[in-house]
Amino acid sequence: MDVTYESTKRELTTDQGVIRYHEAGADNSEVLLLLHGSGPGVTGWRNYRGNLEFFAKTHHCYVVEFPGFGVSDAVEGHPVLTAGASVIRFMDALGIDKAAVIGNSMGGVVGINLAIKYPDRIAKLVTIGGVGPNVFSPSPSEGLRLLQEFTDAPDRDKLVRWLNSMVFDRSLVTEELIEERWEAAINPDAAKTAAMMYGSKSFEMMQQFMANSTTPPYWASMHLVKCPTLLAWGRDDRVSPPDMSMVPMRLIPDAELHVFPKCGHWVMIEAKDAFESSVAAFLAR
After folding, report:
1. What is the reported pTM?
2. Residue in 22, 36, 59, 265 annotated catalytic
């Protein structure tokens, strides 16, 4: 199977700009959407390029690039909300009635929100860290504070500190990765999105809004998720510490939790083989 960047890249023109994505797998297979996280230089391809070939053996896979991260066309609105809307727009345009979803961090939040709002369209859900509130750990976490510092005044040293907080094994933070993420992070659309999500001023405004709002946070509605859900977590995640998993594990009716040792926030990369086998078993049930 030829699962390279060039052979899998596609684009879809919608009424709100172009959505770019990667596609692999047999046409008659069940659909699996892979939704990426956030942070400097992130893309769907960079999150899942090591996993796409594996999952394409059993599913027709789409790695969707969210608007505003430097690949798909940017749209107005908060990135989490525009990401969810883009997934539904993507599914509608390609005639996908229902799909399983893997979501890394922010992608998991997007997946949870879709499962709450569109229960008939999400068959199964796998989240990788990121979902739920901090229970015992500080908020924002160490990783998010480093992300704020980078977002407020980007430089390479701050990028390296943040990247190191994402993993248990720091040897994964290579010069190639640093350069790749730096070049992508300074894209104007990506920088604007990062400022909206992680800039200190935006974070303070969001905290004030939540303190004065009568609207409950998304995780308070996780009891409405109807689909089977696998919560995948790195035991050494310093971005979304493992205590965050307690709330979704309890509130989502059909949820199970798998914690991977010696693993940080990027479970699909750092615990690749164990993650893939666990998710494959879950999807096959």
Report:
1. 0.95
2. 265
